[in-house]
Amino acid sequence: MSHRLKKVFVVVAGLLLLSACTGPKAEEKPAAGAGPATSEQPSGPLRVAVISHGTAGDAFWNVVKNGAEEAGRQLDVQVEYNSDGDPGNQAKLIDNAVAQRVGGLVVSMANPEALKTSIENAVRAGIPVITINSGEDKSAGYGALTHVGQNETIAGEEAGKKFRELGKKKLLCVVHEAGNVGQAQRCDGAKTGFAGDVQTLQVDISNPTDAESRIRGAVQTDSSLDAVLTLNSQVAARAVSAIKAVGSKAQVGTFDLNTDVVGAIKAGDVVFAVDQQQYEQGYLPVQFLKLYRDNANVVGGGKPVLTGPDLVDKSTVDTVGQYVQRGTR
Question: Whole-angstrom Cα distance, residue 187 to residue 198?
Answer without folding.
Answer: 9
